[in-house]
Every structure is written in C-alpha cells, then in structure tokens.
Amino acid sequence: MQNYEHWYKIKNLREFNKLSQNELAEKLDISQGQLCKIESGWVEKIDFLLMDRISKIFGKDLEYFLENSVVNNNVKENKGQISCDNVTINNPYSELLLEELKKLIASKDEQIALLKSLLEKK
C-alpha cells in the first residue's frame, strides 16, 4: 500500500484522537521512529497488516485510506493549491510564515546592496 496518499490521514487520525506518536506506536507494535517516518511520508510502502491495525484502532475501513483525498493543514490561511490525480494538497504554509520569509529575503537583499556599495567605495 503506497504511503504518499495515506500518511496525512494516519497523522490526522492520531492527532484527532489525542494520541501521541509513542502511544499509537505502542498500539501498533512499532517504534515511535517508524511511526514518525510513516507520518512524515518517508516510508514508501505501508504493510497491509499495519494498515489493518491502524484501521481497527481508529474504527475505519481500509477503503477510508484508499478514497480520493484532500489534505487540509491547520494554518491561518491557505490560498494556494496543488492538485494531482486523486489528491488535492492545500498550501502547507501559512500566510504569516510567507510574510516572515519575504521580510528575511528583503533584509538580506538590503545587506547585499550595502556590502556591494562598501566594496565599490574601496
């Protein structure tokens, strides 16, 4: 079973049910590190038996993990969207984060301009 469409559902179910990674990993009989890799999308395939255990823990059918999906992130505002075959992923970056990044870039641009002007004076 491919992980790329399912990792976010596992993490969302865990968080919705207020389980830590350690708690869910114990219930699944895997390490917390392995669960972290699954939830981060680093694992290419998830074992069918593991998906069956996840389904039973959260009371979901396996089809829940196979149906078309939308990934929603808990950010203040999403304006962008990336769409692929059966998955829509909303922009994972909050507008506040993007604004902070723009400020940092502008600050670096100002520093570069200042350094260039100092070099020209030599």
Notes on the structure:
The protein is mostly helical. The chain has 2 domains: 7-67, 434 Repressor (Amino-terminal Domain) (Orthogonal Bundle), CATH 1.10.260; 81-121. Helices cover 57% and strands 8% of the residues. It has 6 helices and 3 strands. It has helices at 7-16, 21-28, 32-40, 48-58, 63-66, 95-121; strands at 69-71, 81-83, 87-90. Strands 1-3-2 form a 3-stranded mixed beta sheet, with no helix packed on it. A hairpin with a 3-residue loop joins β2 (81-83) and β3 (87-90).
Sum up the structure in keywords:
122 residues; 434 Repressor (Amino-terminal Domain); 2 domains; 6 helices; mainly alpha
Write the layout of secondary structure elements.
Elements: H1 7-16, H2 21-28, H3 32-40, H4 48-58, H5 63-66, E1 69-71, E2 81-83, E3 87-90, H6 95-121
Parallel strand pairs: 1-3
Antiparallel strand pairs: 2-3
Helix pairs in contact: 2-3
Quaternary class: single chain
| CATH T-level topology of the largest domain | 434 Repressor (Amino-terminal Domain)
Shape: elongated
Overall number of domains: 2
Instruction: Provide the succession of SSEs.
Output: HHHHHEEEH
The CATH superfamily name of the largest domain is lambda repressor-like DNA-binding domains
Query: Going across the major beta sheet, what is the strand order?
Result: 1-3-2
Write down the overall mean pLDDT.
76
- The share of residues in extended strands comes to 5-15%
Number of strands: 3
CATH class of the largest domain: Mainly Alpha
CATH architecture of the largest domain: Orthogonal Bundle
